[in-house]
């Protein structure tokens, strides 16, 4: 059994990671300021409430729990609003991440699994993107995540701090047991917005951008089930605790989906039309991204077994119907 600090453990992906850790016999300690997370989604271990940028608080959490590893998911995670209001994004993702990394360094080089994103690639020149593709983020959000990656790389070289950087593509879906799912006070994400529009629980779906250079003119993404992402965290933990060294890995389904294709699946799953309103492109959005996932398969033996789009949308719809508020 390992003790694992999970920053952002009350958030969407972090709560699924905590559940997966506990299901595998580990002890997750959720660390979250509840700015976007929910305390009622912390169910699989102790909860520590605080701001990751607060070095004294982090030191006390390390002293209380003496973790074997950290999974660092706490972040400001919205692409669009990072463009209009970058300040909170830099505070959490740069100052906060540096404080977490410093705490790890001062606690015996505690290994870190870091939540990065496909947004570090920006508008990739070739698809699918591999981990060796150039990084050129087109949003403050992507830039802050790339800075976190670079700090980790430099700290490994200089101080021997090991890390696994997981570049998730678009995390989606909900816990297959229906216990938890995405439940922000407001969401910016395409799948919950489309489902809510179809079910009459939210406004008409604003389709951001119909003039991209894709087959149907809408942006292309790679949606990967949150349960598959959680599974990759367990494998990354095993890798680090076995002393196998630092890594950077894409986590996607390996398949591309345009926004219009996504809406078709939402309509098929819910049995209802999605009311759609075309809008200009959203600032900070890349045109098209999907992942080459060979490295995660080779190194961690990971496959995104739950990530076919219909299963993703069905699990998200079941969660929204169960917990519509
Ligand atoms: N959702 C996606 O598709 C996606 C894709 C790629 C990467 N990621 C990354 O995955 C991680 C989790 O994302 P999510 O979708 O679960 O978002 P989320 O907002 O649900 O989770 C982030 C959590 O961090 C907490 N938090 C934010 N700032 C904090 C701070 N200063 N101190 C302590 N806690 C703080 C929030 O309260 C929240 O619970 C983020 O790092 C995000 O950048 C997400
Ligand atoms: O109401 C909406 C919401 C989204 N979209 C479009 O749907 C696609 C997916 O958008 P999401 O907001 O669901 O996801 P993003 O790709 O913007 O962002 C997500 O994936 C990113 C990586 O691309 C980040 O890591 C980020 O944390 C995570 O929220 C984009 O083309 C977006 O413009 C719409 O058309 N209408």
Automatic annotation (TrEMBL):
Entry keyword annotation includes Cell inner membrane: no
SUPFAM superfamilies per UniProt: NAD(P)-binding Rossmann-fold domains (SSF51735)
Alphabetical UniProt keywords: Carbohydrate metabolism, Isomerase, NAD
Enzyme Commission numbers on file: 5.1.3.2
Enzyme class: isomerase
InterPro entries: Epimerase_deHydtase, NAD(P)-bd_dom_sf, UDP_G4E
The organism's place on the tree of life at top rank: Bacteria
Pathway in which the depicted protein is active: Carbohydrate metabolism; galactose metabolism
Tagged with keyword Amino-acid biosynthesis: no
GO process annotations (BP): galactose metabolic process
Gene Ontology MF term list: UDP-glucose 4-epimerase activity
Chemical reaction(s) catalysed: UDP-alpha-D-glucose = UDP-alpha-D-galactose
Cofactor(s) needed by this chain: NAD(+)
Residues in NAD-dependent epimerase/dehydratase domain copies: 4-252
Pfam families: Epimerase
Family per similarity comment: Belongs to the NAD(P)-dependent epimerase/dehydratase family.
Stated name of the protein: UDP-glucose 4-epimerase
Organism expressing this protein natively: Labrys okinawensis
């Amino acid at each position: 059994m390992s003790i694992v600090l999970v920053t952002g453990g009350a958030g969407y992906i972090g709560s699924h990671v905590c559940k997966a850790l506990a299901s595998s016999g580990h002890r997750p300690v959720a660390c979250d300021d509840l700015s976007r997370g929910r305390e009622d989604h912390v169910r699989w271990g102790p909860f520590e409430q605080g701001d990751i940028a607060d070095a004294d608080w982090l030191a006390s959490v390390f002293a209380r729990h003496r973790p074997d590893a950290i999974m660092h998911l706490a972040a400001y995670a919205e692409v669009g609003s990072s463009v209009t209001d970058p300040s909170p994004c830099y505070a959490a993702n740069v100052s906060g991440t540096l404080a977490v990394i410093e705490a790890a360094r001062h606690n015996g080089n505690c290994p870190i699994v870091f939540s990065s994103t496909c947004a570090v690639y920006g508008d990739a020149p070739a698809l699918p993107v591999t981990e060796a593709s150039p990084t050129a983020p087109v949003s403050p959000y992507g830039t802050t995540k790339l800075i976190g990656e670079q700090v980790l790389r430099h700290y490994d070289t200089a101080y021997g701090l090991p890390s696994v950087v997981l570049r998730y593509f678009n995390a989606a879906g909900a816990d297959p047991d229906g216990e938890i799912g995405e439940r922000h006070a407001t969401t910016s994400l395409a799948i919950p917005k489309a489902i809510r529009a179809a079910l009459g629980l939210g406004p008409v779906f604003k389709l951001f951008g119909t003039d991209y250079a894709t087959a149907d003119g809408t942006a292309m993404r790679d949606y990967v089930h949150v349960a598959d992402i959680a599974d990759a965290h367990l494998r990354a933990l095993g890798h680090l605790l076995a002393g196998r060294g630092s890594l950077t890995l894409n986590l996607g389904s390996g398949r591309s989906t345009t926004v219009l294709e996504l809406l078709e699946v939402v309509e098929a799953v819910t049995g209802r039309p999605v009311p759609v309103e075309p809008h200009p492109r959203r600032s900070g959005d890349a045109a098209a991204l999907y992942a080459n996932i060979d490295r995660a398969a080779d190194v961690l033996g990971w496959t995104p077994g739950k990530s076919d789009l219909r299963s993703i949308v069905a699990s998200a719809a079941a969660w929204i119907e169960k917990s519509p508020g």
